[in-house]
Design goal:
Blueprint: H1 3-18, H2 27-30, E1 37-41, E2 45-51, E3 61-66, E4 69-76, E5 93-100, E6 105-115, E7 118-125
Antiparallel strand pairs: 1-2, 2-7, 3-4, 4-5, 6-7
């Protein structure tokens, strides 16, 4: 049984008592986000490093980018050894995570690579015609 399912059931019961919004600030403590990510920003790029240990098949991860949102869907499935779990700190399971980006990104210029248990996603800033510097013409007004 998924250990987080019991927490989800417990949370639902507590929602009835405290109200649904009470737990929003505790979400990362009760159930840590998976996959874990680091995000770095420069003037024109965003680099996301996604922790995906043991990925043998690139189909285990779906990446979607929509303007200012990065969505990650997939499954972290570590091959388990026989025996009873003594300690389990590497998070695994099915995930669906949306991350807000600091600025809009181009849909046509996205690079993703996998190396040493990390997925590197390189996104490029969308510079639209609206954001270009427009020269404003100054006109003389006749004195009255």
């Amino acid at each position: 049984m998924d250990p987080f399912q019991q927490m989800t059931d417990w949370k639902k019961n507590m929602d009835h008592f405290f109200g649904e919004n009470f737990w929003n600030e505790f979400e990362g403590i009760i159930k840590p986000n998976i996959p874990q990510i680091n995000m770095y920003q420069t003037d024109h790029e965003i680099l996301c490093m996604v922790n995906m240990p043991g990925m043998q098949n690139l189909n285990q991860l779906d990446i979607f980018v929509n303007y200012t949102t990065l969505e990650l869907k997939g499954n972290i499935d570590l091959e388990q050894a026989n025996g009873t779990v003594i300690k389990e700190e590497i998070l695994q399971g099915v995930f669906n995570r949306e991350i807000n980006l600091p600025f809009p990104v181009r849909a046509d210029k996205i690079n993703a690579t996998y190396r040493n248990g990390l997925v590197f996603i390189q996104l490029h800033r969308l510079i639209s015609d609206k954001s270009k510097k427009n020269k404003v013409e100054v006109q003389f007004m006749e004195d009255e």
